[in-house]
Specification:
The protein is α/β, with parallel strands linked by helices and about 350 residues long. The chain has helices at about 50-55, 120-145, 160-170, 180-190, 205-210, 225-235, 265-270, 285-295, 315-320, 320-325; strands at about 5-10, 25-30, 40-45, 70-80, 90-100, 100-105, 110, 150-155, 175-180, 195-200, 215-220, 235-245, 270-275, 305-310, 330-335. The chain has two domains: about 5-115 and about 305-335, Quinone Oxidoreductase, Chain A, domain 1, CATH 3.90.180; about 130-280, NAD(P)-binding Rossmann-like Domain (Rossmann fold, 3-Layer(aba) Sandwich), CATH 3.40.50.720. The longest helix is centred in the middle third of the chain and has 23 residues, at about 120-145. It binds NADPH dihydro-nicotinamide-adenine-dinucleotide phosphate.
């Protein structure tokens, strides 16, 4: 009997928000294992804002997903069959993979998972696969936080944002989060220890920043762009640092928009704006995992995951990232109870 798997393939490039029909979900035969490959049963699929970027053919930091090809995604999974030396059945791996429940891989883009003590796989994968290192390198290397400085982070209750704010607190910053809705804002201040939170859906962000940071902002950990970014950047202090991590409010745009108002301020206030992609730090991944794993194990960093069942509903869930429908790091539970390179 031929083993089959379920898999999503990119059918057409989305225009605006991702829509039904942009990807197709199907069942197909699992490719045979060649020497040097192993079969991974996917337990968790990470849904990330960058998935929308990979579906497009706009300029980006990795090749776009080809039309008709399996959708790329970050996965965590368990080895169920191996023809690769050093990889054993039962081993857990995470990294670049596919929106599928089974994938054949030579291990490229995947790393063996070391679970920090007491931390379940969904939490370890949710934080350590991408968003934690993004927060770690973006804030520490590019934001260069110093005790007493004011740090503002947008999309603060999401995967990256919740970790950025908590590392900021560990470094002695005053941390202001910006998020959509009172429940997310309450979570930031009451559960994660942020100093303040601004509900951009119901409050005037500029007026609240004026009240909370009358002397200005030292670090903008920017994840949103648009009016939220304008409000923050226009209140930066001399020699402030804008860490340009993401622009999620713009990912579904169908035409270029100009947010030019603050570029003059960048000049006059000698701001550093540093765009980065976390893969720039691939050579230092182990450092981030060790630090983040330690903080997770000793309770210094607590995170919330938004885990949803069913690979077949992944496309529907993805849309939540662009509407604020997720609360915490968005993951799909693929493995029903038990989650690069040249994966196929
Ligand atoms: P999140 O878990 O933060 O989910 C996205 C969140 O963005 C939503 O929950 C929503 O929160 C907020 N959002 C969506 N649309 C808007 C909008 N129009 N205006 C304001 N806020 C909006 O996702 P991640 O933590 O995975 O990613 C956050 C950002 O970091 C993204 O921009 C992503 O592209 C970027 N990123 C960059 C990386 C890099 O290497 N540079 C790596 C990983 C992520 P709310 O309800 O608060 O509006």
């Amino acid at each position: 009997m031929v083993a089959t798997r379920h898999i999503w393939r990119l059918a057409r490039r989305p225009v605006g928000s991702v829509a039904e029909g942009d990807m197709v979900f199907g069942e197909e035969a699992v490719p045979d294992l060649a020497e040097g490959e192993f079969l991974l049963k996917v337990l968790y699929l990470s849904l990330d804002p960058t998935n929308r970027i990979w579906m497009s053919d706009a300029e980006q930091y990795m090749p776009p997903v080809e039309l008709g090809a399996p959708m790329r995604g970050l996965v965590a999974g368990r080895v169920v069959k191996s023809r690769k030396d050093g990889v054993a059945e039962g081993d857990l791996y995470s990294g670049f993979g596919l929106w599928a429940d089974l994938m054949v891989t030579d291990g490229g883009g995947l790393n063996r998972i070391e679970l920090p003590p007491g931390v379940p796989l969904s939490v370890a994968f949710g934080v350590l696969a991408l968003v934690g290192p993004t927060a770690y390198f973006g804030l520490l290397d590019l934001g260069r936080p110093k005790a007493g400085e004011t740090l503002v982070v947008s999309a603060a209750a999401g995967g990256v944002g919740q970790v950025v704010g908590q590392i900021g607190k560990l470094k002695g910053c005053r941390v202001i989060g910006i998020a959509g809705g009172p429940e997310k804002c309450r979570f930031l201040t009451e559960e994660l220890g942020f100093d303040a939170a601004i509900d951009y859906r119901n409050e005037d962000v500029g007026a609240r920043l004026d009240a909370l940071a009358p002397d200005g902002i030292d670090i903008d950990f920017e994840q949103v762009g648009g009016p939220v970014m304008n409000a923050v950047v226009s209140r930066m202090r001399l020699h402030g640092r804008v860490v340009l991590c993401g622009l999620i409010s713009r990912y579904n745009d169908t035409e270029e928009r100009e947010d030019s108002g603050y570029w003059r301020l960048v000049l006059m206030r000698r701001l550093s704006i540093h765009g980065f992609i976390v893969t720039d730090f691939a050579g230092r991944w182990a450092e981030a995992l060790a630090a983040l794993g330690g903080w997770m194990a000793d309770g210094s960093i607590r995170t919330r995951q938004d885990v949803r069942p069913g690979l077949d509903r992944a496309l529907e869930y993805l849309d939540a990232l662009y509407t604020g429908g997720n609360f915490g790091k968005l993951l799909v539970e693929v493995g029903a109870g038990d989650t690069g390179g040249t994966a196929r």
